[in-house]
TrEMBL record:
Residues 1-35 form the signal peptide. The keyword GTP-binding does not apply. It comes from the Bacteria. Residues 312-795 form the Glycosyl hydrolase family domain. Residues 259-279 are annotated as: Disordered. Coiled coil: none annotated. The keyword Hydrolase applies. Pfam families: Glyco_hydro_92, Glyco_hydro_92N. Its EC number is 3.2.1.-. This is GH92 family glycosyl hydrolase. It comes from Streptomyces silvae.
Length: 811
């Protein structure tokens, strides 16, 4: 028998075949750059490996835009309850225990969310329970990145064991080719209980007559495995069903539960719980099917998933993948789908590295929200019951990392994909109605996880409406969110899940409405100062929304509440070096929480006073006045981005300075526009995009947080940034590309021209909006709602007189 080629050679041959057949023509090798010609095949510049190291928590597997299925590795560091990073994959960990069907992009709370049903091509006989292999010493395999390929919609890997997997997906289904060494036992393990956070229950059925494997897992528990916020989220809220069919018969079958192996069995069940260590060790269930590879070493599997039912999984598979479709066929369609989606922002010129960073950021931004409804419109509600999408709603979406997304990703979605944004808004409203009127701040599938702080849904839907999104019940949604912001709920007095997963969405609202700030000692929240700032942002956004709806009385009330941030600004709080005036937590009796330090997180959520003091995007002029005027505020902002010696400090790690890895301060570089020094925004943003973002696995600064950090880069590269939640106004910066077109299905296209854009021209010298010269560093809502053109003249040195007049500053 001839020797078998190595995984690397086999993958190289497969990749060559892909190029020759045109299945993914041009995806693996970007076309030669053409001066300022607009990119026509964006997938050529997408590298799914960006963000898989450095805490980015992205995943490289196969996924479609907004897809339900995301087929990607579950890696292991020798602990079956962990993976080395949140969401299943860490570039530096080159051992995996399966290829899981669902993932969430860039979320924290290691081990993340989802990662349901790892399927492992295993070379060897199954002689013991894989669940009992708690250190992944036996039923896992190493791999090399040389044997790994990731492009939009397709993932291929060769394992050290000699097995390979080639995966491609539709929205709710996928197809895989597995190959094995011809002279060794070949098995596929279905680890049905081993979701990233564990499971309450799982089941598997093997139908040898029809060459099918079906099953489900009852799970949830986002942030539960590691008990962030106690055991509040160690609970189930969804069941994922799967149905897999094969092109050939099984030679062997078997199942396992905990430490017991049942060779020849065709059914099994059992969860592994949500604990770690000894409390979980050896628990779980699954099954395997084996194949005779002496004459044929390839196995094709087609699989569908559903959050509703087994029948739904099978229907999704039938609807989306033809019976004889190959991996190439499905991958070709996936690549085309991504090209269509990414072509909503076509850039011209710039270096290949810039285009790769840009389109990968856009790719990560448009991974979510994620479908949870089947092809027939059914989905699992937050009440645990099946529902159908509302009339006029195309699909039900979920995975809402509100505290993160409302600052950038939501605005990008509204700008480029308003119809998706509208369906997402309706989806969140549907969930709230099924949840007793409560809008949860972090929704995973159909689960209210309560993660983070504030009321980000109010800011999100107000932003959607301001930016022209109308395909949702905006009157009903506004009334519901206004009620949540004005009528106390019993959950607001609970400390369950605190600090990270506090149950109350407007915690201790009665006290907040009376005191006009969240008191640290009775707030039932993560931190009183942070809660006050978050609620002020949300209320200001509700006020703008109410104003647009013609509800002026409510608008005035919410606009006033948007100024309550001032009640946690202590003008006497100092850093010990002469700078005074910081956000500080307060007690119910009005006294300030001490001891105080700008570098402390006391009263804050995932940040310090030094960062949160700038988190007043809705009232920058008021913040500047409180600090002693715009000039003083600008000098303080200089110190936020620079070390004492004047050098840049924008990479994080300093509690007193800018942290690009988390959300509370990501708008801060753009505050110079409102302070009358827009050239400092231009140079600061350019420093961040040049030194914090880039290509390669470490190309993101930290958690992508469901596309938020990527969306920040997309906006910055285009020379635009959302001014404040609930508004369609955009702040202006210097574009990275000589030309760009935002191709929008409604509202009109936006065309951006900056002929001098390159590495040496980071400053704005002049701007024309719709052919009219402007001396303002911001645009009103018309650019977003109607479309238009921006023409920049860029320079290699700052223009310190452009857009500095007090009358023309953004508020």
């Amino acid at each position: 028998m001839p020797s078998r080629p190595s995984p690397a050679r086999r993958l190289a041959a497969r990749a060559a075949a892909i190029v020759l057949t045109g299945a993914l023509a041009g995806v693996l090798t970007p076309p030669a750059a053409q001066a300022d010609a607009l990119v026509t095949r964006p997938t050529a510049y997408v590298d799914p490996m960006i963000g898989t190291a450095n805490g980015g928590n992205t995943y490289p597997g196969a996924v479609r835009p907004y897809g339900m299925m995301a087929w990607s590795p579950t890696s292991t560091t020798g602990d079956q309850t962990s993976t080395g990073a949140a969401n299943g994959y860490e570039y530096g960990v080159t051992r995996m225990r399966g290829l899981s069907l669902t993932h969430v992009n860039g979320a924290g709370c290691n081990p993340g969310a989802a990662g349901d049903v790892p399927i492992m091509p295993y070379v060897g006989d199954v002689t013991s329970s894989p669940s009992a292999d708690t250190k992944d010493a036996v039923y896992a395999s190493g791999f090399s990145h040389d044997d790994e390929r990731a492009v939009p919609g397709r993932y291929t890997v060769g394992l050290d064991s000699g097995a390979t997997a080639d995966l491609a997906v539709s929205e709710r289904a996928g197809v895989a080719d597995f190959s094995f060494p011809a002279d060794k036992p070949a098995n596929l393990l279905f680890r049905v209980s081993n979701s990233l956070n564990g499971s309450e229950d799982a089941e598997i059925e093997i139908d040898t007559a029809h060459r099918k494997v079906t099953g489900s897992v009852l799970t949830g528990a986002f942030c539960g495995r590691r008990a962030n916020g106690g055991t509040n989220n160690r609970r189930s809220y969804y069941r994922l069903y799967f149905s897999a069919s094969f092109d050939r018969a099984f030679s062997t079958t078997g199942t396992w539960r905990d430490g017991t192996l049942a060779p020849g069995a065709t059914s099994g069940s059992g969860g592994e719980g949500y604990a770690t260590g000894a409390d979980r060790a050896g628990r779980g269930s699954g099954g395997w099917v084996g194949f005779d590879t002496t004459a044929d070493d390839d196995v094709r599997m087609r699989i569908g998933i559903s959050y509703v039912s087994q029948a739904g999984a099978e229907a999704n598979l039938r609807q989306e993948i033809a019976p004889r479709a190959s991996v190439d066929d499905v991958a070709r369609a996936g690549s085309a789908a991504w090209d269509r989606e990414l072509s909503s922002a076509r850039v011209g010129g710039g270096s290949e590295a810039r285009r790769t960073t840009f389109y990968t950021a856009l790719y990560h931004s448009l991974m979510q929200p994620n479908l949870i409804s089947d092809t027939d419109g059914r989905y699992p509600g937050m009440d645990g019951k099946p529902h159908r999408v509302e009339r006029g709603q195309k699909a039900q979406y979920s995975n809402f990392s509100g505290w993160d997304q409302y600052r950038a990703q939501i605005q990008l979605l509204a700008l480029l994909k308003p119809r998706i944004a509208g369906d997402f808004a309706q989806s969140l409203y549907n969930f709230a109605r099924q949840n007793g009127g409560v809008w949860d701040r972090w929704v995973h599938v159909n689960g209210a996880t309560h993660v983070m702080t504030g009321d980000p849904t109010a800011a999100t839907l107000a932003t959607f409406y301001a930016m022209g999104v109308r395909n949702f019940d905006y009157e009903g949604a506004f009334e519901s969110l206004a009620r949540q912001a004005t009528v106390p709920h019993p959950g607001g007095l609970s400390d369950a899940g605190c600090p990270g997963q506090c149950t109350g969405q407007r915690p201790n609202l009665a006290q907040y409405l009376e005191s006009h700030y969240a008191a640290q000692d009775v707030c039932h929240c993560w931190g009183g100062a942070a809660e006050t700032l978050e609620d002020a942002v949300a209320d200001a956004a509700l006020g703008r929304w109410a104003r647009l709806l013609g509800r002026d009385e409510e608008a005035a009330a919410f606009e006033e509440r948007g100024l309550w941030w001032r009640n946690v600004f202590n003008p006497a709080a100092g850093d010990g070096a002469g700078t005074t005036g910081y956000i500080q937590a307060r007690k119910l009796d009005g006294s300030w929480v001490t001891p105080f330090s700008p570098g402390s997180d006391l009263g804050f959520a995932q940040g310090t006073s030094a960062t949160y003091t700038w988190m007043v995007p809705q009232d920058v002029q008021g913040l500047a006045e409180a600090m002693g005027g715009r000039e003083v505020a600008a000098q303080r902002l200089d110190g936020f981005f620079h070390a004492a010696d004047g050098s840049w400090s924008v990479k994080g790690g300093d509690a007193l300075r800018y942290d690009p890895t988390n959300e509370p301060g990501i708008h801060a570089p753009w505050l110079y526009n409102a302070l009358g020094k827009p050239w400092k925004t231009q140079e600061t943003v350019r420093e961040i995009v040049d030194t914090v973002y880039g290509t390669g696995p470490r190309g993101l600064p930290g958690n992508d947080d469901l596309g938020t950090m990527s969306a920040w880069y997309v906006f910055s590269a285009l020379g635009l940034y959302p001014q404040t939640p609930g508004s369609a106004s955009m702040l202006l910066g210097a574009p990275l590309f000589p030309s760009a077109v935002l191709d929008r299905p409604q509202g009109g296209d936006i065309r951006i021209s900056a002929p001098e854009a390159d590495a040496t021209h980071p400053y704005i010298d002049a701007v024309r909006i719709d052919r009219r010269t402007t001396d303002r560093s911001w645009t009103d809502a018309r650019l977003v709602t109607r479309g238009g053109s921006l023409a920049y003249r860029l320079a290699d040195r700052p223009n310190t007189s452009w857009a500095t007049g007090p009358a023309g500053l953004p508020r």
